[in-house]
Amino acid sequence: xxxxxxxxxxxxxxxxxxxxxxxxxxxxxxxxxxxxxxxxxxxxxxxxxxxxxxxxxxxxxxxxxxxxxxxxxxxxxxxxxxxxxxxxxxxxxxxxxxxxxxxxxxxxxxxxxxxxxxxxxxxxxxxxxxxxxxxxxxxxxxxxxxxxxxxxxxxxxxxxxxxxxxxxxxxxxxxxxxxxxxxxx
Length: 185
Description:
single chain, 185 residues, mainly alpha, Arp2/3 complex 21 kDa subunit ARPC3, 7 helices, 67% helix
């Protein structure tokens, strides 16, 4: 019978798994404008909901580091100059969003606390949208000198994604809750 994984090995394995899922989720995309729809948001929310805020945030920080050193893991490449891309704000928001998505206190963890998980995921999505839209607006207007109204930024960077991201929040909460139930059984 195999030995159970110790805590450090399990943390390392989960971190690697979620880093890989976030990378793959970013490449499964549907271009619809300035900001493409990807499966990355659902992977980010799932990382927080299932693995917790520390493992989820660390997974995203590793992903960001990999991309910023030049490995093309971002949707349009990689490298330090990627910070000048209008969509980089969404990536910057992801560690914060994962911390929020994984904020369910250990004492109150109930595998079936779907409502709380969904609410935390919705707040995480709002954080991604606010930071992403603000960054896109600022980079477009002040760095790239490409005039963009705040309403255009909100529409192209947030409003059209609300249905998809709402579904992502629900799916990641339900799957993480179900997997936690199976894990304990």
